[in-house]
Amino acid sequence: MDNLQPSPEPTFGQQPAGQLPPAPAQTPPAAPPPYGYGRYVPPPPPPPPRRSRLGTIVLVLLGVGVLGMVALGLIGRHLINTFNYSSGGDGMAGYDLGVEEHGDGPKSILMIPVHGMIVPDEGAGPAVIQQLRRLHSENQPSGIRVVILHVDSPGGDVTTCDIIDDEIRKCREKNIKFVAFFGDLAASGGYYVSARADRIIARPTSICGSIGVLMMHFDAGKLLTEKLGVRDESVISGPYKDVPSLFRAMTPEERAYMQNIVDKLYARFVGIVADGRGMKEVDVRKFADGRVFLADEAKKLGLIDDIGHRDMAIAEARRLAGSSDAAVMIYRRKISPLEALLQGGANSGPLPREAQTMARMALHPRMLFLWRP
Fold first, then answer.
1. Contact 212, 188 (CB under 8 A)
2. Mind telling me the catalytic residues?
């Protein structure tokens, strides 16, 4: 026992054997510096920019302006058409007979423009019909022996074209001769109303032909039903009463039904051309597939008689009238300042007049003698 020595005392920095060092003392975190004394505080987010109302106001005014222009155009067209064709008894109110080509001979030639779409409520249709009707029913203007049809038209409504053809036939029964003169275009219905002319003259650059029938129709079912939520809930008395419909594609039976109508009108077109040009229907059908032709090819096919310009057409009309210096007359309309203002509104708008006419025809399907490239 005396030999046991006490354990030496641990020196500074050493731990007794078999004991773990004490855990280091936890230093409390330093308190954050007060605001404004070195503490970073992110700046507040900028206020959202104020949206200018100017753009919204401009868009609203633009929309109102477009709607106003469209409304003005529709009102103007309605008033102009009413003024042109519904007043004055025979629809020729406001027209004056003037000289188109001077001559020392009798005033025996009348030039009738057939320009633009041939439709029943505006443009060439009503004015041409009334002038021809006057000629064969009232002999007005008096002394007319030859008519020059100045055609520049892609065609138009089947019935309107057929009415013009019938008025030409009645004039021919009164021994009135016809010369058709083609400008840029005499296609489909434009050619239909010219086929009975005694002579047809086309400019070298004229496009003519397009013998055929078109029924414009669009299947807008997905747009109307799926996008706009518009459904067709029409009540019909028979399976073909709503054919064709914008809300669906035609069935094979419905297409055959409509095709039969188109084929019969096409046969009538072919017959008019064959009768007017002194050809056989079987020969007309060889090229009556809707194609258009330049003047040189049209002459080879027998669709026209000569290639020339305005002076040739007038010379041919004077020859048929039996007077080498006959004057050429034409009806012109006098436009009042108010009508000019309305006419400006009618021609303005987001769509040109021709496009508006095409849109109306597409929304109200009808048979057309029309070249639509």
1. yes
2. 188, 241
Amino acid of residue 52: S
HSE-up of residue 85 (Cα within 13 Å, Cβ side): 16
Q: How much is the pTM?
A: 0.69
What does the DSSP 8-state code read for residue 246? T
35 in a domain, yes or no?
Answer: no
Report the distance separating Cα 362 and Cα 357, nearest Å.
9
d(CA 284, CA 294): 17
Provide the number of structural domains found in the chain.
Answer: 1
Q: 84-88, 110-114, 144-148, 311-315: lowest mean pLDDT where?
A: 84-88
Alpha-carbon distance 75 to 67, whole Å? Answer: 12
**Residue 236 is part of which domain span?**
60-370
Least confident among 91-100, 119-128, 325-334, 343-352: 343-352
Residue 51 resides in a domain? no
Residue 43 belongs to a domain: no
Domain harbouring 267, CATH code: 3.90.226.10
